[in-house]
Amino acid sequence: MAADARLERFVAYEREKTRRAISASIPSVATLMDRSHYFDVEAIAHPVIEQFWGGPFHHSRADDSLEIPVTNLVFVQDANGNTGSEEPESLGGGGLDLMVYELASRVYVDAVIAGSATVGSPADPEGVVLSVWHPEGVDLRMHTFGKRRHPINVVATEQGDLFVEEGLVYNNPDVEVVILTGDRGGSRLAPRLEHRSWVHIERTGERPDLRRGFTILREKYGVAFASAVGGRRVATELLDLNLVHDLYLTTTPIVAVPPEPPTPFYLGDPLRLRQSLDLVVRKSAQSPGGEIYSEYHRVVSGEGRAGFRAA
Ligand SMILES: NC(=O)c1ccc[n+]([C@@H]2O[C@H](COP(=O)([O-])OP(=O)(O)OC[C@H]3O[C@@H](n4cnc5c(N)ncnc54)[C@H](OP(=O)(O)O)[C@@H]3O)[C@@H](O)[C@H]2O)c1
């Protein structure tokens, strides 16, 4: 496909994402708990955010002592805690979830990180571009936070079988892409990316190493803040490696078709996960199917805090 046609598809995608962001129905949100004053967190206060979140949106502060970005992890799960879905919007998070993951958690970050299976799949090779689409969010991002239009899109892959030709994210020079991979994935991808100077391959050793990848993002690409959107396999590694500082978790009232095996966002010991989370803010909103809950947790184990793997 010619470069012009690829860009046209991107423009159509952007138009649709913008339309959805503007027309998202935003339920009125109730604040059930707000412990933000106990934590050393930053508050984003802006009408476009307060309108759906019912107050400022909090996140961990920048930390110059860290060799990695300060990173949030964003998930929507159904009532049974399952997250696997080709279309996470089908899990029933509605406008509240859309605004958390495509606006508030992203508006201040330099990069958004995802596993290859979340960025594109055989059923959807065009895949996703991880950015902010609400016009007021774009304005806030660029003019208040001084960030570029699109965050760097970071894709984690071991095999390197990415949908480079079809994927929207790899075909717009305005979207810088960093691929975190190992030697095998790097060798397979290099010849396919020769004419895409805006897509960078970062080999982190023989096997991919996300911790090393995070230090490269910080040192080489200047990523101070990042947002990770999973899926669950990448999220589990990020949590196990203590690379996550903030968790934004939305739980919907619906029960999606039960996947086999189940798809919780953390595939390790759920008790260990619970013990590593410190609830800061809890909100709820009505949806046609019942109550939606959206929570902000600090991850006690994020680098610079107590260890996630600690016995
Ligand atoms: N509910 C939600 O909020 C939410 C959020 C995100 C995604 N999802 C859904 O979840 C599904 C995907 O989740 P998933 O767990 O199957 O996949 P995923 O975590 O998105 O991606 C897994 C892939 O990431 C790569 N990877 C994993 N660990 C790596 C490492 N250490 N270094 C480098 N690459 C690594 C591997 O890619 P290769 O195979 O290329 O080697 C692996 O196959 C999709 O259906 C998506 O729509 C839901």
Mean pLDDT value: 94
Radius of gyration: 18 Å
CATH-defined topology: Dihydrofolate Reductase, subunit A
CATH superfamily: Dihydrofolate Reductase, subunit A
- Terminal Cα separation, in Å? 53 Å
Unreliable segments (pLDDT under 50, ≥5 consecutive)?
none
Structural class, from secondary structure content? alpha/beta
Largest sheet: 10 strands, mixed
CATH architecture: 3-Layer(aba) Sandwich
Topology overview:
Layout: H1 3-23, E1 29-34, E2 41-44, H2 47-53, E3 57-60, E4 70-77, H3 94-104, E5 111-115, H4 116-119, H5 135-144, E6 152-156, E7 177-181, H6 183-189, E8 199-203, H7 210-221, E9 225-228, H8 232-240, E10 246-251, H9 270-275, E11 277-287, E12 290-299
Parallel strand pairs: 4-9, 4-10, 5-6, 5-9, 6-7, 7-8
Antiparallel strand pairs: 1-11, 2-3, 10-12, 11-12
The protein binds NADP nicotinamide-adenine-dinucleotide phosphate.
Q: Could you explain the architecture of this structure?
A:
The chain contains nine helices and twelve strands. The chain has a single domain, classed as 3-Layer(aba) Sandwich (Dihydrofolate Reductase, subunit A). By secondary structure, it is an alpha/beta fold. Helix 6 links the parallel strand 7 and strand 8. The radius of gyration is 18 Å and the shape is globular. It has a ten-stranded mixed β-sheet with strand order 1-11-12-10-4-9-5-6-7-8, with helices on both faces. The protein has a two-stranded antiparallel sheet with strand order 2-3. NADP nicotinamide-adenine-dinucleotide phosphate binds next to strand 4, strand 5, helix 4, strand 7 and helix 8.
